[in-house]
Amino acid sequence: MAAEGHDLAGEARLMDALLPRGARVLDAGCGPGRVGAELTARGHWVVGVDADPALIEAANADHPGPRWIVGDLAALDLPLVGEPEPFDAALLDRNVLTFVAPGTEAEAVRRVAAHLRLDGLLVAGFGTSRGYPLEDFDAHCAAAGLLMEHRFATWDLRPWTEGADFSVTLARRKSE
Q1: Which CATH number fits domain 10-173: 3.30.70.20, 3.40.50.150, 3.20.20.140, 3.40.50.300?
Q2: Geometric angle at alpha carbon 96, from 150 and 2, rounded to 5°
Q3: pLDDT tens digits, 136-167
């Protein structure tokens, strides 16, 4: 895809711009680790989680440095696996929330949000026609204690319009 001119680092560039150097980032639904590795190269501490052991194996092989963990986002409990510190931000890109088991979206958002420090940022991007309505996502964020700050139509921050085929949402964990 890179050879065809596709931007493979847009998500990492956005996260990097939003965070201070050395931020602790949860790459939720990390796949083979491409974005987490890019964030690590930009000076952040990354923990990636994915339910697919083969993808975590690929992340470990291709991108040493970040910590890669097999786990289900809807049952996420990172202190149980030695990651007790809260995160400055969590990234759910690559349509992750449309790939979780049907009916677990709310719990996945809640569990990821629970790993954020107060005032931590959740950034989620997914296609709007992939079976997870934005209204549901917004309700799940609110129920998880997240306040939406911004919504864009692309990772390069093109303005959101109703009917856009992609959504990038920035939501912050409200103080308790």
Answers
A1: 3.40.50.150
A2: 90
A3: 999 999 999 999 999 999 999 999 999 999 99
